[in-house]
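sanity check both lines:
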Amino acid sequence: MLSHVVLAIGLLLALQAPAAPRKGGSPEAAKIKNPVAATPESLAAGKRVYQRLCIRCHGAEGKGDGEAAVGEQPSDLTAKLQFGSSEGDMYSVIRRGTSKDMESYAERISETDTWNVINYVRSFGRRPGFDR
């Protein structure tokens, strides 16, 4: 009985998880829409999270030139992104991770703050190939 409950919970969590990141983007992830408007409050919250967790690798302007970058070069967030440039793709990368260098942040960033970070990163400037 307990194993059935655990299995059911696992299936529910899997269904709610964002699509796995794929190089070039994921059609499933691209369907995920940002529910958080890019208000001044969202941008400020996103900047706080970015400065706490992202700046060390992605750099102050998102160019992938942070001082703590190790392993593969971090993505230049102002250019077309390797795992897709839609907001859903970005959400999927942050929530699920892509490698040991870009690990999942699902346990460290709330869903709302994930969207706030995406709104903040978008404020770096419109990128070629960026889809809303």
